[in-house]
Amino acid sequence: MRNIYLFANGIGETIRTLLIAYLIFTFLFTVYSIARMYYIEHKSNDRKGGRARVKALQATGRLMQFPVYSMEEMGRDKHKRDVKLMFFPADTPKSKRFAMILPGGGYAHLCTKQEGYPVAAALNRMGVNAFVLEYRAGRDCEPFAPMEDLGVALRLIQDNLEKFNVEMDKYALIGFSAGGNLAGIFASDSHGYLDYDLPKPGAVILGYPWTCVNDWLHHPYWNIWIGLMGIWLSNRGSFYMFGVRHMRKGRELLDVQKYIKEDYPPTFMYSGSWDVLVPASRHADVFDAALKKNGIKHIYEKYFGVPHGIGLGIHTKAEGWLERAVDFWASFI
Which of 28, 161, 169, 314 is deepest in the core (most CB within 10 A)? Predict the structure, then answer.
């Protein structure tokens, strides 16, 4: 074996060389994957279209944005002051049904401009009324606070149906990444709609959802850098919601597939095979298996080479997913 050049300096030195080569290669691959993700995300989210829709509603005096909580509630808890709901009414609505859009951000921040306004604008073009919720995240977060924000927001809509000219029957929840985690849990019978005396969602629509406990031992990664990134992202969301002492328990409480039962709403979900932040194989695939196990009517679309954070997925293989999701939702109305 010593006659082979790779082993000329002994087994120990060879292992060290291979380890260094592995670390360098996987690091460069990770940097490339992240750079590629941001490049594709920039092209696919249609921020310009989202901003244009907001300006159009402002110009016609139809833009509605308001706090979800009362002055008294915001006075008692300052963290509730930034919880806002924005209404995007369709110009020619096909019906009174509506979709609630929940942007992602890992429960650390909100990607509203990428995954909120553009999606609402696209729904409006299809004749669907939409709401975008800015829920608590980051330091404003606490255990199941986003679920509370969503419940209170839906109660606010329920109490003002004539004002918005919508109906609660068969509403849809549309969530991306951590917003998908929020939508997924809220649609179950734990920490969700039942706690707020609300009807069950007519459909759950998820884009590259973060659904699973992302623990290294449970989900081994061939790329250590992507593995560490995944662990950090999962723990970050759990940290903001549950704090350091209860972070591990928090990860388990945010494991969506644990809440799936036979009465779970119909679900449409999509993800990409090149998602380095929320790998489909660790999240969407696992959620898909839970839906199948419980006999839930659902569609799962997985696109080769598509990264995280693409929103509408314009100029990607996922383009058109929202139209298909709306058709899926309509099939249960």
Answer: 314
Angle (deg, nearest 10), helices 224-242 and 11-44: 60
pTM over 0.85? The answer is yes
pLDDT tens, residue by residue, 4-41: 555 566 677 778 888 999 999 999 998 998 899 889 98
Q: What share of the chain is helix, strand, coil (3-state, %, to 5)?
A: 45, 15, 40
Helix, strand, or coil (residue 102): strand
The vertex-89 CA angle with 87 and 94, nearest 5°, equals 140
Contact 230, 215 (CB under 8 A): no
The pLDDT tens digits of the residues spanning 91-137 come to 999 999 999 999 999 899 999 999 999 999 999 999 999 999 999 99
Whole-number Cα distances in Å, 246 to 103, 143, 180, 296:
25, 10, 22, 31
Give domain limits for the chain.
Answer: 46-330
* Largest CA-CA distance found in the chain, in angstroms, rounded: 84
Interatomic CA distance for residues 54 and 62, integer angstroms: 9
